[in-house]
Amino acid sequence: xxxxxxxxxxxxxxxxxxxxxxxxxxxxxxxxxxxxxxxxxxxxxxxxxxxxxxxxxxxxxxxxxxxxxxxxxxxxxxxxxxxxxxxxxxxxxxxxxxxxxxxxxxxxxxxxxxxxxxxxxxxxxxxxxxxxxxxxxxxxxxxxxxxxxxxxxxxxxxxxxxxxxxxxxxxxxxxxxxxxxxxxxxxxxxxxxxxxxxxxxxxxxxxxxxxxxxxxxxxxxxxxxxxxxxxxxxxxxxxxxxxxxxxxxxxxxxxxxxxxxxxxxxxxxxxxxxxxxxxxxxxxxxxxxxxxxxxxxxxxxxxxxxxxxxxxxxxxxxxxxxxxxxxxxxxxxxxxxxxxxxxxxxxxxxxxxxxxxxxxxxxxxxxxxxxxxxxxxxxxxxxxxxxxxxx
Length: 391
Ligand SMILES: Cc1cc2nc3c(=O)[nH]c(=O)nc-3n(C[C@H](O)[C@H](O)[C@H](O)COP(=O)(O)O)c2cc1C
Description:
It comes from Parasutterella muris. The protein is of the alpha/beta class.
């Protein structure tokens, strides 16, 4: 059992930022830091660990892809790092997610009899312990630095989320050939994990081929991240993605028995198109600011989308979710469930499945406290009266 940690310091972060930019304040370049990490054969923590230790170990594992900044707000050294862990362009879409969520406040209500709230929800027929699941995140090598194998990563995300009573996620990275996707599904199936699978907006026949494979792995639901249809993704290793027409959305919905959720919806009119196509759900998401640069933050546009959908499909949302209060805010703005991406990835690198379970349980505990302090006995009781929306 290992408990050695490094302390985060401003100097450490500045040095890393400078190294990324090709200079060095500390005398250590990013390349040297990476080499020295490799030389030390740093591995995720196992056994008993604290959340701070998980974050410190994740920093050692992931630099220079991710610096595990005190706040993950899109303003760290990862700006513009896609592939990597940052956002597109100046990372303004990533920053907008953080800023729009930070601008929403919670109304404290303490005259009631809510003592032990129920944080569980029904997710397409499966009871989960809290309204947050793992977001699909792909690219262990080109996005995360390659310190975990594909199998380790799937085991960490899905095993950890399942330990905490919620769902993991498996991605279909645009840069990954079919056999990599198949191996991820094999890990899922072998271990009987409860998870969702995220598909790329490939050609219809290629999506359908991957749908069949996902169905055989016994998963709960599928997402297609429509927002990955951009130029950068198209150019990757000859694999083709495309924007979808309303007819193509309908075709995809009909093509699988699994609930199909369209991810990357950022306007009420496109939410309406998804509802009309028969989608089981949508994810209000700008892909963590990683596809189209300079989009608004998800918390800013969620209420208008929720009003438009008006209960006709399941609404999910993601964007810099780090705390239980963030879950309550997103639900107060109209979501039925949330996803967390980067924070789960970091927890996986810091402490594998135990690190992921630690983070998930922390979210659940924080949500329970927030529900008591806002007077929500169940997740369905969380409503717009509980949030203050900026004008
Ligand atoms: C490294 C990385 C890889 C990602 N890969 C995928 C993917 O393959 N499919 C997908 O739908 N979204 C992908 N996403 C987007 C996430 O699912 C999520 O929408 C986004 O990260 C916002 O959540 P966050 O702010 O909690 O990270 C990826 C995000 C990151 C950071």
